[in-house]
Structure formats: structure tokens, C-alpha cells
Amino acid sequence: MRIEQVTIHRYEIPLEEPFVTALKPIPELERVFVEVETDDGVVGLGEGAPAYEVTGETQGSTAAVLEDVLAPQVLGENPVDVERVTRQMRALVDGAPSAHAAIEIALQDIRGKCAGLPLFRLLGGNATEATIDVPKVLSIKSPEEMVADALEAVEEGYEQLKIKVGTDPATDGERVSAIAEAVPSEISLKVDANQGWGDAKTALRAIKGIAEFVDVVEQPVAKANVDDLAFLRERVDVPVMPDESVETANDAVDLVKRGAGDIYNIKLMKTGGITEATRLNAVAAADGRPTQLGSMVEGHIGTAAGVHFVAAFENVVWNEMVGPFMTTEGITDLDTNVPRITVEGPGLGVSVDRNRLRSLRSGRAVVE
Q1: pLDDT tens sequence across 268-279
Q2: Is residue 317 pLDDT above 90, yes or no?
Q3: Which residues constitute the domain of residue 64?
Q4: What is the DSSP string of 98-136?
Q5: Catalytic residue, candidates 113, 136, 164, 270
Q6: Residue 348 is assigned to a structural domain of this protein
Q7: Does some domain include residue 132?
Q8: In angstroms, what CA-CA distances link 142 with 74, 171, 176, 233?
Q9: Could you report the per-residue pLDDT of 6-50, keeping only the tens digit for each?
């Protein structure tokens, strides 16, 4: 079996409302969908979800790297040789992780389809089915607006809330404490500063004001301030979760050595796909640490890949595959029912709705 064609689709997914973090507001999702077709007629589906502030990519750069470099590189290769093919792609392009992820996820989809098994069973098979419950992510707004959003989410059935913060510590404290007071005590609260508090001194002040309310604090300091993560971990009573500071397995090794973080946030778009994400997760597991499978607000295909990753490994204890519940539509038959996502069938277990794809697509290229 050989890869004979790669089709690259640029498409935009409308959001229910703009998504606001400490990094920037996001009005819509600009995504890249990839189809990798073999000479046997098996087609693998993959997705790139670039975010310039995190991966250094845009939709245009991701599509260009795929069309000009990575897709020509994989033509003629056996798609089930995932390790070798991804190693060759990395040797050719250093960086562009969401472009790598798009191809790599498609290869994993083919691998599962050829085996006749859902992908999570090939990756690890920890769970008995590929089903996850996701949190509701609350964009940065005024405390009053965020309380209203939190109450609406609880009414919809969410049992976990992720609160975006990262402005000034005082206002962030008002946001978190107001939400904690308003929602039932059994609702799990997490906060994500997206590097917004910057340094250890500011972050320490912010965390001490909210620690009693939350289960974890994500990326409280700037990406490069790894020593600050270790400093905070020794001084606060709530787990600290690096996100932007841990992109690869090598990063995880460094953080383990420096004691910088209690739980690591893995994202397939940071690692360049499932292969490197599995290595990163193995580093955490070897050190007795749990992980979270985070989200770049992927569309349906990237979300399906995330569901399989969560179901594959015991130490992936949280997830944030929230994309399908933040968008107005998608391009597959992914089974979503707040707050649950389920996938069934071989490979990723999803099929593309061609009519929906055409309605959202802004560009298409074929490499053969």
C-alpha cells in the first residue's frame, strides 16, 4: 500500500461567540483539513489547527507547508509506517507542528482502518470505548457576565468549568470567586492564565487569591519562565499545569528534572500529532504524573483524534476537546451531546459530510 494523493482543504468554522483568552480574541476557527488517499482506496483524515501565538503558524502557512513540502514528501510512502514517515517529515521541516499533525493524524486514521480497529485500541486501549466528557470553557469577560455563562453551562449539563483568566490578578480573583460562589460545590473549576500573569511574583499573588476554589492552575507565567513554574509549585496548594511551556517530550523531560509542574497539558497541535504526544505522555507517566489532553479548539477531525488519545492511556485524566461545542457546525458525523463526545468505528471513526465541507471551504489543493 502506498500514498498516491493528498488533498488539502482550507476551511473556516463559525463560533457560537468570539472566544477570548489572555492571548487574543478568536472570532472564527481557521482550519486545514487533509485527506491522504492510498492506492488501495483507503483515505485517512487529518486536521491542522494553527494558532500563531502558540505554534507560530497561520492557516495560510500551514496549508503552504503541506502543499509545497510535506505532502510531496509522503507520496509513495506506506502510510502505516507512521514512525518512519513522521521522522522523515521532521527531518525535512523543523517546526510547523499543526501541519505535521494534519498528515500524522491522517496516517493514524489509515492505520486504524487497515487494522479494522478504533484508533484508541491500537494506541493503548485503556478505556473500553472512545467516549469523553468535556468541560465548558468560559471566555474572559466581566465577572458578572462570566457568572451568567457559568450558570448557563451548569444548566446545560456541564460538570467541569475552565475559567479563562490572565488579566490583572484582582479582577481575575473576582471572576473566579464569583463563579465559585454561584455554581454548585460539586462543579469542578479550573483556571487558565495563558501566560497572562507573566512572572512568579504576580502569579503567586493571583493564585493565592483563588487557590481555595480551583482544582488546577494552568500556565500562570510566561512560556520561557520554567523556573517560575517550579517556584510556584513549591509555594501554592493547588496543582500547577504547564501548557505552552511543554510542547514536546524533550520539554517534559526538562520540566521533570526541574520539578516544574504537577500535571502536563498535551496538545496534538503542539506536538505535531499523536506520535510525539504519546512520547510526552510516557515521560509524564514514568514520573508518576497525570496529563491533560488540551485543545486548540479543533474541528471535528482533530477532536476525534483527541478522543482516541484520551481513551488510550490511563494517566490522561482530563481533556478539553471543546471545539464541537463552541462552533455552529462541523464537517463530520461526530456524535456530540453536551458534555459528551463519542466516536465509534475503525480509525478515527468519523466520516466527512461533503456538503458541509463545500459550504465552509475557502481553498483546495491536490498533490499527487
Answers
A1: 999 999 999 999
A2: yes
A3: 3-116+353-367
A4: HHHHHHHHHHHHHHHHHHTSBHHHHHT--SSSEEEE-PE
A5: 164
A6: no
A7: yes
A8: 48, 8, 11, 28
A9: 999 999 999 988 777 766 677 788 999 999 999 999 999 999 999
Output the domain CATH number for residue 169. Answer: 3.20.20.120
192 counts as catalytic: yes
Residue 139 domain-assigned?
A: yes
Spatial separation of the C-alpha atoms in residues 169 and 308, rounded to whole Å: 36
Q: What is the pLDDT of residue 68?
A: 98
What is the band of 352 on the pLDDT scale with cuts at 50, 70, 90? Answer: very high
Q: What is the pLDDT of residue 28?
A: 83
The pLDDT, as a whole number, for residue 95 is: 94
Q: Which among 30, 47, 77, 218 is annotated as catalytic?
A: 218
- 18/10 Cα distance (integer angstroms): 20
The β-bridge relationship of strands 25-38 and 3-20 is antiparallel
Assess whether 128 and 273 both reside in one domain: yes
For range 277-297, the mean pLDDT: 97
Measured CA to CA, the distance from residue 142 to residue 125 in angstroms comes to 42
Q: What is the mean pLDDT of the chain?
A: 96
Which residue is catalytic, options 172, 174, 228, 243?
243
Whether residues 162 and 282 share a domain: the answer is: yes
243 is a catalytic site residue: yes
Domain containing 111 — which CATH number?
A: 3.30.390.10
Give 350's DSSP letter.
-
Number of domains in the chain: 2
236 domain residue, yes or no: yes
Model pLDDT, residue 22: 62
334 shares its domain with 229: yes
Q: Are residues 154 and 82 in the same domain?
A: no
The grid coordinates of residue 305 equal 483524534
Given 228, 267, 270, 320, the catalytic residue: 267
**Annotated catalytic residue: which of 30, 109, 192, 298?**
192
DSSP state of 299: -
Whether 138 and 265 map to the same domain: the answer is yes
Residue 144: per-residue pLDDT? 97
